[in-house]
Design a protein that fits this description.
Elements lengths: L1 H10 L7 E5 L2 E4 H4 L10 H18 L4 E3 L4 H13 L13 E7 L4 E7 L4 E5 L7 H19 L9 E4 L14 H12 L12 H14 L4
Parallel strand pairs: 3-4, 6-7
Antiparallel strand pairs: 1-2, 4-5, 5-6
């Protein structure tokens, strides 16, 4: 009851620019939080904040070592090549991580790319079932550059498996607005090495839960 009240208040009337949560050098305003209202598209702020909550949980609760790139990473890599993002991993050894998540915004659609360093796999998760083979290849090339630059080691592409998840392998959305929530919840399961079991029906509940989690900076 108390949680419902808090969620409703956050989604209710108020100053759009009011900051409802700040951490990880990120600020989430009421306007940002309101993208979690039913059938709205999630924005970068909400997705980046949620991904950072996953990283914090992994550190705290002994889940696989997790690195998450910001939603601004992939467009920067595409527009400027490796040079443009070389410094994004200052102080981070990507090859000591277990999992690396890359949320990707394709103009009007959110998807997720998952690099499993342990298994040497790069997988693409799309809740509309589209293929992302080119995106997987781009990220493998990025890892090769990163390995050369930071470790002076050649990364053998032949040892890596690239795969776009098929619509029957992962839950799919049945509307045009829940892709961002799907991306966050794929990431939630993957970051704990858990199977992805939710469906479209869970989306309204997940949206409200995410409002609470972002405001309290704590995953339920």
């Amino acid at each position: 009851q108390a949680m419902e009240k808090e969620v409703s208040a956050a989604l209710g009337k108020g100053e759009p620019g009011e900051i409802l949560s700040s951490a990880f050098k990120l600020k989430v305003t009421r306007e940002d939080i309101c993208t979690l209202q039913h059938l709205r598209w999630l924005n970068d702020e909400v997705i980046n904040f949620y991904m950072n909550l996953l990283v914090e949980r992994s550190k705290r609760e002994g889940y696989p070592a997790l690195h998450v790139f910001s939603t601004f990473f992939y467009p920067k890599l595409c527009s400027g090549g490796y040079k443009a993002v070389r410094r994004w991993t200052r102080g981070v050894d990507l090859f000591k991580q277990d999992l690396i998540l890359v949320p990707i915004h394709l103009r009007v659609h959110w998807t997720l790319l998952v690099i499993d360093v342990r298994k040497k796999t790069i997988k693409y998760f799309d809740s509309l079932g589209q293929k992302g083979d080119d995106i997987c290849t781009t990220l493998l090339q990025y890892l090769q550059e990163e390995s050369k630059e930071k470790r002076k080691l050649e990364l053998a592409a032949s040892e890596w498996t690239l795969h776009s998840m098929s619509p029957w392998e992962i839950p799919q959305q049945t509307n045009g607005s829940d892709c961002g929530v799907f991306v966050c919840k794929y990431a939630d399961s993957i970051s704990r090495d858990k199977p992805i079991t939710f469906t479209q029906e869970h989306m309204p509940y997940f949206r409200r839960k995410m409002v609470w989690e972002i405001i309290h900076q704590q995953l339920l």
